[in-house]
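Title: Prediction job returns without error message
Component: structure pipeline
Severity: low
Priority: P3
Assignee: unassigned

Description:
Job completed but the reporter wants confirmation the result is attached to the right record. Sequence as submitted:
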Amino acid sequence: MSELASPLRRSLRFARRQGWLVALVPVLALLAAALVVQRQDPVYRASMGIVVAQAGGNIQVQIGNQQTMRNILESDIVAQRVVERLGLSVSSAHLRRQLHVDVRPDSSVLAVSYDSMDGQQALRIVSEVGSQFQLLIREQLGISDNFEETGPLQIVADVIDPPHLDPEPIAPQSSRILGFAGILGLALGLVLAFARESLDDRIRERSDAEEWFGAPVVGTLQGGFRLEPNARRRRRRRQRDALELLRANVELRQGWRQPALLVTNAGERGGTSTVVASLASALARTGENVLCVETDIRQ
């Protein structure tokens, strides 16, 4: 049980020391993502559906060559006609990049969509793409635009789903962006926390002290320990009891030959001199020869 508790305690101490960093980085990432999302202009999508089929006999609809029709829809000829017809300030190449044509499986319907920051302009472009597509295939391939009269190839094409604007913008996708930013921030926070912990060479535990100095820890006192003459009686009694316990631990190690004791403190003014003087006095009273050495290079 103690073997399991030790890693758990280390994990809890790590969380207590570095938890603020693990929490801060995702918060900053979310704030940055929210700022980016707020500054982005919404992008709207206009869509329509075009059915392409082949008539035979009693004009029974069959699946046509969707890939050919898709290539026609995405061609530069259709794009250039749309740009000239609507008087757009964009190039035909830009229009083609924003135009999407998807072939629905096991269907003769082509899904055509166009993305733009101007929803009404996207709607006009999609509508004009459908018109120019029907006009072009009538001119070049002799294909009619309805199911009543067929051309020489007996292929019909018509807009079955009228152009319409999606009610909600497709970008920016706030929830996805914020979720990705939160996950990325959490991962970065953990990496920074582990890096900060690994670069921290401060002594925090008894095991750290024993590893650094190559000697067992005799005892510890509460941080900031100082024998204060004007302290309350109960506080002074606790301080003296803690010091007596430490002295007893030192005396139990009398089997050492010429033992050396190192007294250190994490702070600048934590009562180290008071502890050394008290231990030296207590050991001297028991007949030990005591030599105190001050090694504080800051003074």
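Comment from assignee: result matches the submitted record. The longest helix spans residues 2-39.
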